Amino acid sequence: MATTNLQFLQNPFPRPTFSSKYLVMRAPKMVFKCGCSSSSSVGGDAFSLTSSSKCDVDYLGESTKGDLNINLKHLENFGLDGQATLEGPIEQVARLEAEEAGSLLRDLGIPSPSAARLSPRGIFCTRTLNLRSISAIGYDMDYTLIHYNVMAWEGRAYDYCMENLKSMGFPVEGLAFDPDLVIRGLVIDKEKGNLVKADRFGYVKRAMHGTKMLSTRAVSEMYGRELVDLRKESQWEFLNTLFSVSEAVAYMQMVDRLDDGVIPADLGPLDYKGLYKAVGKALFRAHVEGQLKSEIMSKPELFVEPDPELPLALLDQKEAGKKLLLITNSDYHYTDKMMQHSFNRFLPNDMGWRDLFDMVIVSARKPEFFQMSHPLYEVVTGEGLMRPCFKTHTGGLYSGGSAQMVENSLNIHGDEILYVGDHIYTDVSQSKVHLRWRTALICRELEEEYRALIHSRGPRATVVELINQKEVVGDLFNQLRLALQRRTEGRPAQTLAATNMDDQELTESMQKLLIVMQRLDEKIAPLLEADGELFNKRWGFLSRAGLWDKSHLMRQIEKYADIYTSRVSNFLNYTPFMYFRSQEQTLAHDTYSHYCSEHNGSSTN
């Protein structure tokens, strides 16, 4: 059936009228019905869906798969030939349609995508993503579909870790879990016993030894000639996820004990790297021995923060024709318990959490799941009994396997799959690097950071104003200094006015300017130090390193995550057909725009 991508017809739909119970859309010439039950036909004769075999790419390079088209034959039935003209230039028509659309969204009480972006629960785009072209969406579980109370979950993980360290002979008396000691995106220096925050280039901006913050001078002396390189795994350990919090807190506290010389000698000669291994071993025991997860399974309400909107967001995606996958490293019993607790009570029509997913894979062993092939087992009983299998089927529950098995089973590959997780490396980086899946990062802390940034606008504006003042004063000081240098060498200054200044006037002007700059430094330094303390007093903002630069974490997010947001339920503020468009990236030489405005758009040769 012939199709066209016409976006506007003659006599576009008028504004809807409202009754007390129903919203009625009146279209005098045509009535379009839209349903999404078929992959080949949508809305009966009115529309067709662009298939994988007939898709193209749009002007932004995104696949047009999943786009709706108007069937020309259907238009002919209404006396239209498919070459319908618009009443006026497209720019004018589009402007009017956009105004009408915005007004209608407000009347319906539906936030527009642009409004949703301007909120702590927005979905932020680093690389353009057309959700219509996505055929399958895979989800991680822990801290993605299930959000834990960090103080409760990580606090108990810390407690078990400390109990294991105590049984190994380490002195842990008097220590308590302090989640504010660390934030996601920091890097442990296992050679020096430090925790550092680096900028996007790897330069260390803040550092803590044990639980004591280091001065700016100490940081410069220690890391002035060294960059954080995450490829050097023997030295650096990146805190990818909230699961890293308990381990990092325990390690930094034990560094203090090692420095104090209170760790028994019979534990052997320990350096900071050996101490990190010991803490990691103690925490690993807490997970492997099962006590921690057994406690959480027995009282999930104490550890899980429910999100009633989340199952509904997934339901929208499923009903839009997306195949939903759950791919988690957690075992079957834990996964089933957590998902039942978090999903079943919020689903309609007696649905269970399993009904949402076309495939469930537990004990996936990510990141190896994305890198190589492991044996696949089918979970065949409620008790978790498994049998080997070589082929998956819709609605199946499996253990192990590989991402390539998933692709082959669904006949969906590469950028037709979106994977959503909270771990920069295990979930986002590896699925993109090895399979070219599209990726979404979940980072719950974004909501708190967004609010903290809003409340920090005043102090940040003050700092920027002071820095700009110093820059102007400094420019004059430097020009006078150069004039003095040239005068000393018997050469004229840059300008006649500077050359004609007498020696005393030149010296006194420089002295005054220098005092002003020194006083400004005294004012600016503590303000910069306090920047971000509304988010974390030690480390500042999650996404920033310094006043203007991005943190190393933000660089990883931009590199590997196509979109990022605070929680999966934020998809509910959009639609399963959303076209996420990345924003303009500011460059250092973008000052040309100011030059053009100041020179009335004129150009120079």
Automatic annotation (TrEMBL):
Q: Which NCBIfam families match?
A: HAD-IG-Ncltidse (TIGR02244)
Coiled-coil annotation reads none
State the name under which the record lists this protein.
5'-nucleotidase
Q: Does the keyword Metal-binding apply?
A: yes
Question: GO molecular function: any one?
Answer: metal ion binding
Q: Which family does the similarity line name?
A: Belongs to the 5'(3')-deoxyribonucleotidase family.
Q: What is the lineage of its organism?
A: Eukaryota, Viridiplantae, Streptophyta, Embryophyta, Tracheophyta
Record keywords: Hydrolase, Magnesium, Metal-binding
